[in-house]
Design goal:
about 240 residues, 60s Ribosomal Protein L30, Chain: A, Alpha/beta knot, five-stranded mixed sheet, 12 strands
């Protein structure tokens, strides 16, 4: 039986979900979520997608939907016809044994947040900490922009002014990315063995309260442009810490 109605309960759940549930679209990302240990709660495939991605569709129970319903629930311009709902994991992680962390302060744009997550994994960072007003790591655009890294990198969310003192107690030095005068060029910074770097939003930067708690302000020297966006800045800083400059 092919689901053709937008009012089908499972179709509606893909459109509006919350709590401990999140939606993933696309064969590669669904496979990444399964490989990372997320538990599928339901899946929808068009008949064409179920045939094309037979190895994937065999890994979970699914319902068949029409192409029209696929277009209705898709968040992309060219739907693959593969959708799955998963249960969220506990997002708390212990950072005492970590060496490199990124803290995101007020980065609300999901594309930027996802790209930062991708850089964190690519350059071997141990985890990422989100302030409460950042984009949700389970947001569909965050997941797509992270290219699946969101499923794999340890992460947590909370109030940075409360988390930073805990980081310091665990032996971390905290560095805030800041383009203002007085910040140390990132290649000239002497990063500690355990380093946590705070990245703020493009418009606001790192908040004053978090700046005040930081051990050092660092900047990326640029010419002409007023600033770099959060994802680009994070990628450069992650690379420099990975390679030692």
């Amino acid at each position: 039986m092919v689901i053709t109605s937008r009012q089908n309960p499972l179709v509606k759940l893909f459109r509006v979900h919350g709590g401990g549930v999140f939606a993933v679209e696309g064969a590669k990302l669904i496979s990444d979520a399964l490989d990372a240990g997320f538990k599928p709660l339901g899946a929808l495939f068009t008949a064409k997608a179920a045939e094309k991605y037979r190895k994937l569709s065999a890994r979970m129970s699914f319902s068949v939907i029409s192409e029209a319903v696929s277009g209705y629930i898709s968040g992309t311009e060219t739907p693959q016809g593969a959708f799955a709902l998963f249960g969220k994991k506990n997002d708390a992680f212990e950072f005492a044994d970590a060496r490199r962390l990124i803290l995101l302060d007020g980065v609300r744009d999901p594309g930027n947040a996802g790209a930062v997550i991708r850089s964190c994994e690519a350059f071997g960072f141990d985890g990422i900490i989100f302030s409460g007003d950042c984009a949700d790591i389970y947001n569909g655009k965050v997941i797509r922009s992270s290219a699946g890294s969101a499923f794999r990198i340890p992460n947590t969310r909370g109030k940075l002014p409360e988390i930073i003192p805990r980081l310091k107690d665990a032996g971390f030095a905290v560095y805030a990315a800041d383009s203002k005068k007085g910040a140390v060029p990132v290649r000239g910074a002497a990063f500690a063995e355990k380093a946590a770097v705070v990245i703020g939003s493009e418009g606001r930067g790192v908040s004053d309260g978090v700046l005040a708690l930081s051990d050092e302000r660092i900047r990326i020297p640029i010419k002409g442009a007023e600033s770099l966006n959060a994802a680009v800045a994070a990628g450069i800083i992650c690379y420099i810490l990975k390679t030692g400059g």
